[in-house]
């Protein structure tokens, strides 16, 4: 009989198949492992970045305040006894702080040492006193305990970022200053409080009084201009090119160029803004208006491409249905295509805005990199934006700005996350309709 | 069938609703239709049959100029409705499509409510002066499309939530809401199950009394069931057109003979 040879051939076939199967399973498992490894690596770097930013930046949200006994000396505030606003505004409040510090450390007589002593308190302290007196002139002549902002170096000492281990030449506080700061801390006359100034004021040369709010408003005005310009123009261009324009060489050329523009380095748009808007059209320098226009030019290709993709995704059967009941091409677009494409269009637009929010290079070219302490009040005021502010702080020599920079990144990331969240929510909301 | 037979006898005497003379269609350099000549009798159903790619849908789309939206498509020759040329420059396409409704192969309701699906056409053509008028048009159209009993309690729910057969009848209601004179149907039952198909075929027969219907179908049985005139297309040519029972029982052209007996197709 031929049973056994046939059987053995079947066996070898089965064995070969089993080997093939094992190989396939092995390959499958390895493939998945690579995927998991890739994801884990990406997550690790992302996590490391976020953690390092938070570790560096969290301290900027707290600020050291010192308790001082301030005597609101009438001789210093208004020698002539007048209490009109102008007198109160121009009075030398730093003298009050200095005399209070002198009282606190009566042993310090040397002028140079005294200057070191005054370095423990922020220059913002006199502004704080001025505000208090102007709000309540009755304080004049009285003596009261006031919590005043410490200087950035004192702040670093209280936060433990400056220690005696460091060589004196390399740290911002001298041995003497460290002694005084240690005494103040030992008396519980210094404490860390939430740094509201960081979130409510504009930039400053002093790290302890520097705030992010100026950059936030600058970014806001810039993005408003960007959105107002790029959204309608982008949507109209996409709609025309996708739904109405004839398909010929010219429109193909336009399409290719839009795709190319999306890949142009952003600094080129900055140069364009400098040449056209500032030099030729004489628009105001450092203004959100110009920044917004430049960023709008930069985002336009992104928005057009996203909107065209969204329009393209609408099934042709919907257009045919509308046309067949006698809708004009414009009615078809407005009543059917746009509502259906809206979520995709908006997602594209918001992602474009998020990119514009994080853009630095083109804004450097049009002067938004200038030091601006005032919070802008409109699109014509000189302003800076969040990423440029971060860049400026990163560039500053004072050590305390390092934490400010990281805190600025945290604020910027928060805004980016919020914007992306809005994009997701909008998408959900409009897609849920049916 | 006997009713269809009887009606076929009235074909000769029926007034001509639409007339095609030497209609040629090109997609770019490729010719899709080679000189079509056909008369569409009023208040009758004309079915266009033929193998895939023979040009029957292309011809159907000439009648409401839906080919205009296809890039590179060119239509030559003359098509008249009530004696008026529709391919002339002076013919407004939107107005033409209000007179010539269309139902597509795949049900394509708007992603809006059932009510809104039907009301959309009348609204853009300004056919309803008030909300009550519009309600009346919607109810009438849904009634004529035989859908009213199934949807009257949920006019505000999405049209896309209906079953395939219901969606197709909704599309028919949407077409007739504009009160067209001609209705073009492009394989309206190809995506439907047999029961839904029977329902739509019944509907076509009812609609014939008010409208003139041209239907493209793959199913010869369907052509025999619903139409009084049948036209056989093959490779871009109109091979033969005539009363339905004559085409199916006594075709003149050997190609028609071959197709209806299943030898080509």
List the helices and strands and how they pair.
The complex is a heterodimer of chains A (434) and B (265).
Chain A: H1 3-57, E1 62-71, H2 74-77, H3 85-90, H4 93-104, H5 111-118, H6 124-135, E2 143-149, H7 152-158, H8 175-186, E3 190-194, H9 196-200, H10 213-244, H11 249-261, H12 266-280, H13 288-312, H14 316-324, H15 329-357, H16 361-365, H17 386-394, H18 400-431
Antiparallel strand pairs in A: 1-2, 1-3
Helix pairs in contact in A: 1-18, 4-6, 10-13, 10-15, 10-17, 12-13, 13-15, 14-15, 15-18, 17-18
Chain B: H1 2-11, E1 16-27, E2 30-41, E3 45-49, H2 56-63, E4 73-81, E5 84-85, H3 93-99, E6 100-103, H4 114-124, H5 131-144, H6 148-151, H7 164-177, E7 182-186, H8 194-207, E8 212-216, H9 220-226, E9 229-234, E10 237-243, H10 244-249, H11 254-260
Series of secondary-structure elements of chain A, N-terminal to C-terminal: HEHHHHHEHHEHHHHHHHHHH
Structural class of chain A: mainly alpha
User: Averaging pLDDT over every residue of chain B, what do you get?
Assistant: 88
Helix-residue proportion of chain A: 55-70%
Order of helices and strands of chain B: HEEEHEEHEHHHHEHEHEEHH
Largest chain-chain contact?
A-B, 21 and 28 residues
Rounded to the nearest angstrom, the distance between the terminal CA atoms of chain A is 70 Å
Classify the beta-strand content of chain B into a percent band: 25-35%
In short:
Chain A is 67% helix and 5% strand. By secondary structure, chain A is mainly alpha-helical. Chain A has a 3-stranded antiparallel beta sheet with strand order 2-1-3.
């Amino acid at each position: 009989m031929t049973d056994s040879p046939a059987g053995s051939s079947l066996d070898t076939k089965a064995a070969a198949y089993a080997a093939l199967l094992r190989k396939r399973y092995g390959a499958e498992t390895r493939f998945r492992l690579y995927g998991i490894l890739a994801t884990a690596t990406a997550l690790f770097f992302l996590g490391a970045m976020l953690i390092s930013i938070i570790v560096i930046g969290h301290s900027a949200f707290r600020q050291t305040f010192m308790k001082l006994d301030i005597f609101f000396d009438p001789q210093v505030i208004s020698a002539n006894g007048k209490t009109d606003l102008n007198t109160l505004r121009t009075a030398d409040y730093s003298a009050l702080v200095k005399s209070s510090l002198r009282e606190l450390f009566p042993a310090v007589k040397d002028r140079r040492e005294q200057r070191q002593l005054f370095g423990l308190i922020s220059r913002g302290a006199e502004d704080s006193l001025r505000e208090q007196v102007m709000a309540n002139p009755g304080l004049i002549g009285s003596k009261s305990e006031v919590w005043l902002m410490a200087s950035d170096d004192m702040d670093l000492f209280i936060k433990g970022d400056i220690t005696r281990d460091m060589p004196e030449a390399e740290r911002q506080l001298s041995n003497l200053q460290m002694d005084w700061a240690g005494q103040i801390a030992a008396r519980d006359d210094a404490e860390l409080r939430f740094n509201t100034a960081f979130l409510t004021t504009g930039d400053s040369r002093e790290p302890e009084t520097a705030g992010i709010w100026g950059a936030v408003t600058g970014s806001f005005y810039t993005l408003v201009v960007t959105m107002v310009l790029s959204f309608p123009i982008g949507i109209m261009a996409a709609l025309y090119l996708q739904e109405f324009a004839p398909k010929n060489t010219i429109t193909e050329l336009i399409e290719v160029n839009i795709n190319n523009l999306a890949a142009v380095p952003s600094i080129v748009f900055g140069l364009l803004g400098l040449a056209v808007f500032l030099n030729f059209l004489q628009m105001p320098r450092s203004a959100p208006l110009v920044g917004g226009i430049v960023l709008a030019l930069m985002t336009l290709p992104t928005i057009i491409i996203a909107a065209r993709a969204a329009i393209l995704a609408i099934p042709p059967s919907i257009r045919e249905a509308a046309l067949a009941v006698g809708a004009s091409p414009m009615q078809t677009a407005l009543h059917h295509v746009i509502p259906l494409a809206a979520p995709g269009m908006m997602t594209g637009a918001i992602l474009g805005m998020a990119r514009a929010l994080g853009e630095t290079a083109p804004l450097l070219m049009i002067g938004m990199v200038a030091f601006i302490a005032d919070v802008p009040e409109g699109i014509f005021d000189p302003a800076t934006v969040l990423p440029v502010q971060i860049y400026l702080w990163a560039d500053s020599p004072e050590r305390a700005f390092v934490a400010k920079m990281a805190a600025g990144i945290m604020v910027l990331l928060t805004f980016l996350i919020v914007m992306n969240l809005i994009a997701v929510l909008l998408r959900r909301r409009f897609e849920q309709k049916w | 069938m006997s009713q269809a037979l009887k009606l076929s006898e009235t074909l000769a005497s029926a007034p001509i609703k639409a007339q095609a003379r030497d209609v040629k269609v090109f997609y770019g350099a490729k010719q899709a239709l080679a000189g079509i000549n056909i008369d569409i009798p009023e208040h009758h159903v004309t079915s266009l049959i033929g193998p895939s790619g023979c040009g029957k849908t292309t011809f159907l789309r000439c009648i409401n100029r839906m080919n205009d939206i296809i890039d590179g498509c060119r239509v030559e020759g003359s098509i008249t409705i009530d004696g008026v040329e529709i391919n002339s420059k002076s013919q407004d396409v939107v107005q033409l499509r209000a007179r010539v409704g269309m139902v597509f192969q795949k049900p394509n309701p708007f992603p809006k409510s059932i009510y809104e699906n039907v009301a959309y056409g009348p609204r853009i053509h300004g056919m309803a002066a008030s909300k009550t008028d519009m309600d009346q048009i919607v109810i009438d159209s849904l009634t004529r499309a035989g859908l009213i009993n199934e949807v009257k309690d949920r006019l505000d729910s999405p049209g896309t939530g209906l079953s395939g057969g219901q969606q197709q009848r909704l599309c028919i209601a949407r077409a007739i809401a504009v009160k067209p004179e001609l209705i073009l149907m492009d394989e309206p039952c190809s995506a439907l199950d047999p029961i839904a198909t029977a329902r739509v075929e019944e509907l076509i027969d009812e609609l014939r009394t008010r409208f003139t219907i041209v239907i493209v179908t793959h199913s010869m049985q369907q052509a025999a069931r619903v139409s009084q005139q049948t036209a056989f297309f093959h490779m871009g040519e109109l091979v033969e057109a005539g009363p339905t029972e004559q085409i199916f029982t006594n075709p003149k052209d050997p190609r028609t003979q071959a197709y209806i007996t299943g030898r080509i197709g």
